[in-house]
Design a protein that fits this description.
The protein is about 70% helix and about 5% strand. It contains eight helices and two strands. The longest helix has 24 residues, at about 155-180. The two termini are about 30 Å apart.
């Protein structure tokens, strides 16, 4: 089968939009966010009680901005594509709030519907990550800090990602208990566990599917050097 050209810049844009809707559907399901975004979501829930404008999207680019700054502090250096990573976070946060507005009126009163939205959200997020894997443009800060720390300290990236996920999970539980009372799980649930178990498998399968059908190619090769 002849492969079609898929430009990586389009992969980046589609990844942003699909990721935003994936997170919005997962939030709609209310079965637990992925361990990557759960701490951010919990902060949004608490702070928005006092500052209504502190939406999930705003929380995303505030937290990711902090992670970019933390990356600079840990590595003791600043590179231009770190700034582009924050720009990605700004775009994603804006799209996330838009996606949540678009699906706000979808019904979610009964468990089967919540399960449906969770499945849709999980598949969208896996597809979005697969698309991000096929672009040179800067990823979100969640991926940036893992990649840069792994490279700087010569630690296996899978081990670094596992450690980062474990820290996020523990932080989510601590924040939930601190803000909403001991034994109260906000933003963390059965969906968080399911995502942790199946996300890697889904991303791998979707990536393989895309690579069988498309050849990913950079359209704007002159700017690629600024993202490496």
């Amino acid at each position: 089968m002849k492969k079609r050209i898929f430009y990586t810049e389009i992969s980046y844009v589609l990844g942003l939009v699909i990721m935003a809707f994936g997170a919005a559907f997962t939030e709609k399901a209310n079965l637990g966010m992925s361990m990557v975004v759960a701490p951010t979501y919990i902060l949004h829930l608490k702070i928005s009680e006092f500052l209504p404008w502190f939406s999930f999207g705003v929380a995303e680019y505030c937290v990711q901005g902090f992670l970019v700054l933390l990356t600079v502090i840990i590595l003791r250096r600043f590179r231009l594509f770190y700034l582009f990573s924050f720009i990605t976070a700004l775009l994603y946060g804006t799209l996330l709030d838009g996606a949540m507005w678009v699906i706000a009126d979808l019904p979610c009163e009964i468990l089967p519907l919540r399960i449906l939205w969770f499945v849709v959200g999980t598949l969208c997020c896996a597809l979005a990550v697969s698309l991000f894997f096929h672009t040179y443009l800067s990823p979100e800060a969640y991926e940036l800090i893992v990649k840069e720390i792994s490279k700087k300290f010569s630690i296996n990236i899978n081990k670094t990602k596992t450690a980062y996920d474990c820290i996020n999970t523990a932080l989510s539980v601590i924040l939930s208990f601190t803000f909403f009372g001991f034994g109260t799980f906000k933003g963390v649930g059965i969906g968080t566990i399911i995502c942790a178990i199946i996300n890697g498998f889904l991303i791998g399968r979707i990536s393989a599917f895309l690579e069988r059908r498309f050849t990913f190619k950079n359209k704007f090769t002159k700017i690629e050097k600024y993202f490496n």
